């Protein structure tokens, strides 16, 4: 069966179709192209600006980001829609719906999402419980159901909470192996988010 990768714009198509120039070449071009002089005619300055816009289109930071995002989409086009451990940021950014749901139950990531500091799979993820987080969040309970959670640490003393969640028949609690895969993915995701670089929930490789 044929597989299709959705490309959101002509610019994304260009990002896939044309290789990025070497960074040294980009710097050379930027340093050697002069700024437009006041002596130039309006037509000349307009041509200069269009030329620079075209140059930035194919070599600027946005172009590099679009290329990275488009290639990651292609790389993960066959990624199954199931629960498994994600170890790379490209897996996280291109997560399928089931994993999106439970990655967004990660309290650290969910807090960032509620503060609007990350994408949160914008356009794909639907938050069924706005404002809920941790033990008050249904999807979190699905992953932590029947497991021991450390909710407080004070001078070496631990308060332990065990979550048991009654779920409807049409939404069974994930098996233990899947729960562990998801929580391991949470840990991997938190490390990347704490670095403050790429947004692990943005399919377009946005920056936090």
Q: What report would you give on this structure?
A:
By secondary structure, the chain is mainly alpha-helical. It has helices at residues 10-17, 23-32, 42-59, 61-75, 89-93, 97-103, 107-114, 138-144, 176-194; strands spanning 148-154, 157-162. It folds into 2 domains: 10-74, no CATH class; 83-194, no CATH class. It has 9 helices and 2 strands; from the N terminus they run H-H-H-H-H-H-H-H-E-E-H. Strands 1-2 form a two-stranded antiparallel ribbon. A hairpin with a 2-residue loop joins strand 1 and strand 2 (157-162). Helix 1 packs across helix 4 and helix 3 packs parallel to helix 4 (61-75). The longest helix is centred in the C-terminal third of the chain and has 19 residues, at 176-194.
Uncertain spans: 1-7
What percentage of residues falls in helices of 4 or more residues? Answer: 40-55%
Strand content: 5-15%
SSE pattern, N- to C-terminal: HHHHHHHHEEH
In the sheet with the most strands, the strands line up as 1-2
Number of domains: 2
Distance between the termini: 37 Å
Count of DSSP E strands? 2
pLDDT averaged over residues: 78
Compile the SSE list and pairings.
Elements: H1 10-17, H2 23-32, H3 42-59, H4 61-75, H5 89-93, H6 97-103, H7 107-114, H8 138-144, E1 148-154, E2 157-162, H9 176-194
Antiparallel strand pairs: 1-2
Helix pairs in contact: 1-4, 3-4
What is this structure, in a nutshell?
By secondary structure, this protein is mostly helical. Helices cover 47% and strands 6% of the residues. The protein folds into 2 domains: 10-74, no CATH class; 83-194, no CATH class.
């Amino acid at each position: 069966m044929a597989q299709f990768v959705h490309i959101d714009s002509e610019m994304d198509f260009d990002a896939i179709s044309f290789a990025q120039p070497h960074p040294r070449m980009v710097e050379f071009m930027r340093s050697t192209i002069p700024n437009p002089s006041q002596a130039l005619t309006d037509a000349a300055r307009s041509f200069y600006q269009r030329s620079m816009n075209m140059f930035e289109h194919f070599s600027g930071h946005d172009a590099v980001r679009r290329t990275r995002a488009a290639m990651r989409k292609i790389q993960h086009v066959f990624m199954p829609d199931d629960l498994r451990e994600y170890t790379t940021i490209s897996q996280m950014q291109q997560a399928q719906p089931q994993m999106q749901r439970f990655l967004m139950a990660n309290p650290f990531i969910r807090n960032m999402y509620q503060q609007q500091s990350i994408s949160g799979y914008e356009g794909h993820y639907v938050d069924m419980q706005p404002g809920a987080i941790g033990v008050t969040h249904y999807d979190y309970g699905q992953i932590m159901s029947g497991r021991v959670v450390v909710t407080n640490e004070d001078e070496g003393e631990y308060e332990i909470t065990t979550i048991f969640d009654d779920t409807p028949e049409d939404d069974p609690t994930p098996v233990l192996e899947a729960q562990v895969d998801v929580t391991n993915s949470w840990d991997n995701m938190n490390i990347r988010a704490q670095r403050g670089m790429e947004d692990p929930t943005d399919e377009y490789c946005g920056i936090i």
